[in-house]
């Protein structure tokens, strides 16, 4: 099972904020190997892991990660981005949505944000914590954030000691340029629910 660089950075952010995670209800989307979700569960969060219902191998990877990390109580569900399914409709309330490198293929960007918007509408105080690897200067989700009435802030990597080539004795994230964003519902006046931070530094 391969861990992507973005997952290591998001896991670092969770670890730095571990004291605030106990008892939080956390959903990881596009989880795969599920490093961020596993870290959140180890920090005391109530975690649900999800990946596409059309990718049984990815769901199996979620389950394998739970077993390897002695987390048999963590629920794994199939959620396909952009699809309103019975599984999506029946999800318990969440406080934090996690996603590492889900903005990988531009053709999926709107489906991802459609699902995130649906979840945030059901849970107005929740936030979407997501890391992504900068692969092209031409790729942007800003227009889609406006379309779905979402706002984002970029969290500087140095603010949680992630501006390094190696984290937690791992060779990742390496020299990849990784960004971390926190996305939430915009208020009716177009502003965000939280205080903006400075733009993040790239490696």
Shape: globular
Q: Main β-sheet, in a few words?
A: 7 strands, mixed
Strand content: 15-25%
Distance between the termini: 26 Å
Evaluate the radius of gyration.
16 Å
Instruction: Please provide the ordered H/E string of secondary-structure elements.
Output: HEHEHEHEHEHEEEE
**Spatial ordering of strands, largest sheet:** 3-2-1-4-5-9-6
Helix run count = 6
Q: Give the uncertain stretches in residue-range form.
A: 190-203
Oligomeric status: single chain
Helix content: 25-40%
What structural class should be given to the helix and strand makeup?
Answer: alpha/beta
Q: Can you give the mean pLDDT?
A: 88
> How many β-strands, per DSSP?
9
Description:
The chain is 28% helix and 23% strand. By secondary structure, it is an alpha/beta fold. The strands form two sheets. The protein has a seven-stranded mixed beta sheet. A two-stranded antiparallel ribbon has the order 7-8.
């Amino acid at each position: 099972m391969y861990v992507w660089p973005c997952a290591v950075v998001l896991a670092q952010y969770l670890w730095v904020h571990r004291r605030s995670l106990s008892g939080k209800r956390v959903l990881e989307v596009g989880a795969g190997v599920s490093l961020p979700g596993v870290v959140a569960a180890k920090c005391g969060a109530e975690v649900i892991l999800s990946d596409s219902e059309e990718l049984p191998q990815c769901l199996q990877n979620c389950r394998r990660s739970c077993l390897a990390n002695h987390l048999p109580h963590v629920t794994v569900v199939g959620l396909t981005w952009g699809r309103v399914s019975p599984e999506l409709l029946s999800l318990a309330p969440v406080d934090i949505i996690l996603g590492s490198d889900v903005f990988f293929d531009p053709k999926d960007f709107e489906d991802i944000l459609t699902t995130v918007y649906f979840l945030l509408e059901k849970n107005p105080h929740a936030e979407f914590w997501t890391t992504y690897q900068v692969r092209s200067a031409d790729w942007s989700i800003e227009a889609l954030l406006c379309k779905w009435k979402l706002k984002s802030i970029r969290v500087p990597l140095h603010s949680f000691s992630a501006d390094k080539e190696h984290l937690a004795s791992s060779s990742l994230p390496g020299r990849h340029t990784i960004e971390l964003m926190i996305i939430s519902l915009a208020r009716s006046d177009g502003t965000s629910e939280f205080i903006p931070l400075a733009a993040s530094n790239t490696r």
